[in-house]
Batch of 2 targets.
Target 1
Amino acid sequence: MPFLNDQNRMWQDKARQVAEKVVRPLARKYDLLQEYPWEIKEALAEAGLFGVWIPKEYGGAGGSVLDLCIVIEQLSRACGGVGVMYCVNALGSFPILVGATEEQKKTWLPQIAAGKKLIAFCLSEKYAGSDAQSLRLEAKKDGDGYVINGEKKWTTNGGAADLYTVFAVTDPNSKSRRISAFLVEKGTPGFEVGKVEDKMGIRCVPVVETVFKDVRVQTSQLLGGQPGYGFHHAMGTLDLARPGVAAQGLGLAQGALEYAMVYSARRQQFGSPVNSFQMIQQMLADMAAQVEAARQLVYASATSLDKKLPVANKMAAMAKLYATDTAMKVTTDAVQIFGGYGYMRDYPIEKYMRDAKITQIYEGTNQVQRLVVARNLVKETAALTQLLESYIPREIQVGYNDPATLAAQKQQETAAS
Ligand code: CAA
């Protein structure tokens, strides 16, 4: 990538080294075991990768969202599960960066940056997925703190994580200030991991239900110290995090393309390697073009967040939907190129397809991303209307069906008769 700067390339090299030395050789083992890969987590921590997105004043490396995406891409290229096992820590800690008090930042961010504390993000519930505002977990004011009751669903990293960013209802009667976020530690009495999901893909990272039974938290654990800003913190977080899921899709697509290139050069049919056949070549060429288009969009969306551009919300949604749809398409085509062998678990490629599927669903389904993009387009329309309106003919067209032309025609007909 000629336009990456030295810092971007440094993170790319570091992540690629860990991915090739540690992640790829262990990917199959943890996919089969469906267990958290602590040895991989240690390697990521040792390489300093947990500090990428955390500012230097809080013990991090002060990298950009683009640096983070580059690291996620490299890890996901070797294993999609490890990609999310790593980037879910960014998702969990972005609410702290977006909305925490200085004290909360100083307490938690250095430990997360060092890889000493893992973190998870608890927003979704059984009945509140895409409609995140309708969540029901309640946090009732009680003396100098709150008492939390209810359940969360789809908590990625749950059980492994030490800290949980938990979104709960603090004011059921308010429309826009209903939700607040809390920082809840593992081991807090009443806070437990419930059902551990058995998943199609990303099997090395746990996805669980979390259960809250009279969990008492202090006001100091309320994110930002003020109730009612939880939904804003969640939405700001998802804007920052969505390019990361896009990068996961990008890495999966790139990794699958590479396997398909190597296998199609080796596999002989009709006396020739299958990559000499035009139909396979067309597939490979389309896959490569789609991967590259996804890469440009992921990097551009990350840069728009780093530069705090007004288009960042739209760009993050576009990158997430395009790169993860690309991941699904390219990994499926890669399985096709492997033929019957590609469908078998002995071969590495079917795992890419399984890992890719969830990227179209979590951190906002791709239907939600399209909704976010479309809402942005509707807002942008006002500015364009003045410029373009006069160039678009009205449905009533002069000389054909406009009232003046029709009246003139009628007048001529009456005069003639
Ligand atoms: N940044 C900051 N604030 C924002 C915002 C943003 N990007 N988008 C909206 N808001 C604010 C609005 O300004 C509005 O504020 P006021 O009430 O003060 O006016 C408020 O939030 C409500 O906004 P909307 O009316 O637009 O909200 P909505 O209910 O229509 O929802 C949505 C919009 C985009 C559909 C949103 O609900 C959404 O993103 N849903 C998907 C949730 C999601 O991604 N869940 C996945 C969770 S993580 C996961 O998958 C598990 C894991 O561990 C990996």
Target 2
Amino acid sequence: MCGIVGYTGNQEAQEIVLDCLKRLEYRGYDSSGLAIISPDGLQLRKSVGEIAILESKLEHVPGTTAIAHTRWATHGKPTTENAHPFVDCHSEFAVVHNGILTNYMPLREELLKKGHVFTSETDSEVLAHLIEDAQGTDLRSKVVSALGRIEGAYAIAVVQKGKNEIVAARYESPLVIGVGHDENFVASDVTALLKYTNEVVYLQDKEVVRITSDSIEVSDMNGQVAQRESKTVSWSLEDAERSGYPHFMLKEIFEQPKAIHESMLGRLEGQEDDSFFKAKFTSIKIIGCGTSYHAGLVGKYLIEELSRIPTTAQISSEYRYSPVTDSKPLVVCISQSGETADTLAAAKEARKRGCKTIAVTNVLGSAITREADHVIYTRAGPEIGVAATKTFVTQLIALYLLGLKLGTMNNSLSSERRRELIAEMRALPRTVQLVLNDAPIIASLAEKHKKANSMFFIGRHMNYPTSLEGALKTKEISYIHGEGYPAGELKHGPLALLSRETPVVAICVRDHTYEKMLGNVREVTARDSPVLAIGTEGDQDLVKYAEDVFLVPKVNPLFSPVPIIVALQLFAYYLAIERGCPVDKPRNIAKTVTVE
Ligand code: F6R
């Protein structure tokens, strides 16, 4: 949801901010722009479309301080006028902003009455004019004064004509400071900076920073200096690059054996600190959005199975509407980015209600880690493709680990079953690799269905959420309408939509749901829909029921969502390729949604 970058140092800034900005393009790509402090004054360049379009139009502008922005439109269409940065009436200050200012309309009217001239329809432009109007002797104090007038979420970076400094601040939108040698950076996400530095300082809500080439001064809005230690991020530049794959999504799908291994490393032996789990939890609520919610739904089944603690999963944006009850569930907030506004709001609400909270996230130092009482990192490495893949699978691993922990702590899990399950978990990277080896088979199945306008994905029990996730991946990147459904529900309405033109992907693994799933497949084939059945290795019978069959290795039913979702991720990927869709940057979608 918009990416921002800033650089100040002793090198030419233009190339550096553009390079960093391209690594943030997954956050939005409707338009982009940059502002450079050049000897000829504050130079502004903007363009509609991807960053490559801006780059192709750019001449070299000299200057060693710059800010840049890639936009995901919220207020105002994706036009050059609405692209960031924004300047004040005298082109003295330039601002880039990620977030949403909720009170911008009255502020805009007030500024218009004072004679300010606006050039865009955006909420963000008010910031440039507020800074122009602000009291204060230096850029930092003017920015703080302007921020005092606004409501809403922001991560901003501001530059002033003739000054080699950047003032940045954040509230409920992500911002990190990159620490370099004779140069410093700001960015929405650390992956933007990995080529230049892996030393970062995480700015906290309502903090402001002034950076120059050789100083980083963090303070609160009252000017109180805050000492912030820098942290070293273990991700490498290679982790954040495509490494020869045509798309980040494919690379990230193929990284899953490694990601699963990393996320289990040292955790299966139970060596981690258990003190948080000493409390007795009588119920659990899992919260997340999109793919993270689907992981939460799988978590519901597995945690109940392993720990016998009643567990529900809820979409983050709906959590606030559930009544406060006497019971105080353990609230597990899942967010790969750790910055999703709906999930952060739910985590805050859970704390307000007196619940203990756990964050499951992939991003060190992200906002959700500050909201939670306990954090489980998924350790998937950076995920750049907009569609979540390896972060979903590692969220499942985190939830399996949580289920094992809770089941062990409350004695619901015998040590023998625990041992068996752990042995199965250790085999998961190999299992996933076997699915990946069959990618060409999945590609040919996708080729067959590339012309479909609508598809259903059906499954039962643990694989009902898998069907939801398969459908989400499909609609998100191939633009085929994909609908996930509990298989038993088809006959209660959706069968009306089935025909030869509506393929159905049926998850028919050999577990306690198998016979019932075969019944559902028969219902579907009776309506002429072509069925692609995902089954278990060795199943000779499925071909009698389904037009096409893809088999995944046999695993304990509890773990079956893992190999199956890998197959469905590949299916969605190849559908998108066949249809010529921009896999890593699907239309209208941003990877991190920092607005509610
Ligand atoms: C789909 C996808 C989204 C995210 C959702 C939550 O592929 O990526 O549905 O899962 O926006 O994002 P996080 O997990 O960052 O909170």
